Amino acid sequence: MALRVITLNLNGIRSAADKGFVEWAGSAAADCMGVQEIKAQAADLAGRFERLDGLDGHFHLARKKGYSGVGLYTRKAPSEVVTGFDGGEFDAEGRWVEARYDSARRKFSVISCYFPSGSSGEERQAAKFRFLERIYRHLAELRRTREFILVGDINIAHHEIDLRNWRGNRRNSGFLPEERAWMTKLLTRGGLVDVFRTLNPRPEQYTWWSNRGQARANNVGWRIDYQLATPAVAATARREQIYLERRFSDHAPLIIDYGYAL
Fold first, then answer.
1. How many domains, in total, are found in the chain?
2. pLDDT at 213
């Protein structure tokens, strides 16, 4: 059996739909598709985006209009859907939706998560650091009880290989030493696996490009979209792809096939 998992920051689901996202999603053969930065409310989704070609949508939307929000489209109905993880500040921003597939012999989740950006200033960077502290604790607790794949826009490029202009970004949000150290901790002591990098060690593998200048045309990008998995699930990963043929947002879809059955 195979499990195809896709993640994509949409930068607005309505905008992405205008660029062909819905039609592409119907042909992508996903079993689970995590989307981030929906920038929509329930009324905007109604009758249009709750279901995509056999995939049922589950959402955690921000209270603030036109901001954040995550979704998870699933082909197989989960046994439970969990929205939110901290019960406060970040749940109000719509950053976590989790589909659980639990049985008598196994507990397994697929999670769509959108980490904050700190690029707008010190206040949001401080919020990002609070988020990292809380999400680390939550993931550690989750890992004690279940296997999972977390997909999403993490807004951190881990290593120099993960962005083109690493020298010029060492003091910028997304490549700060503290953020990179947090990522290292998550992938060592935290016990999770950066699945893409287990399959593809090559440079110039990016998932986001600035809209300024000719960044995408020149592949001046960052790898900030991830699939992170518990080791037993990560070990079944077979194929990866950053989908570049069509452009739905400033991010590209990240596709990974696992030899893992729901």
1. 1
2. 86
Q: What is the pLDDT of residue 253?
A: 98
C-alpha angle with apex 102: 96 to 106, nearest 5 degrees?
115
SS3 sequence of the chain: CCEEEEEEECCCHHHHHHCCHHHHHHHCCCCEEEEECCCCCHHHHCCCCCEECCEEEEEECCCCCCCCCEEEEECCCCCEEEECCCCCCCHHHCCEEEEEEECCCCEEEEEEEECCCCCCCHHHHHHHHHHHHHHHHHHHHHHHHCEEEEEEECCCCCCHHHECCCHHHCCCCCCCHHHHHHHHHHHCCCCCEEHHHHHCCCCCCCCEECCCCCCCCCCCEECCEEEEECHHHHCCEEEEEECCCCCCCCECCEEEEECCCC
Q: How confident is the model at residue 1 (pLDDT cuts 50, 70, 90)?
A: low
User: 34 is in which domain, residue-wise?
Assistant: 3-258
**pLDDT > 90: percent of the chain:** 97
Catalytic residue list: 153
Write out pLDDT tens, residues 11-29. 999 999 999 999 999 999 9
Question: The domain spanning residue 249 has which CATH number?
Answer: 3.60.10.10
pTM for this prediction:
0.97
pLDDT at 9: 98
**Both tokens assigned to 207:** 């998932």
Q: What is the pLDDT of residue 261?
A: 87
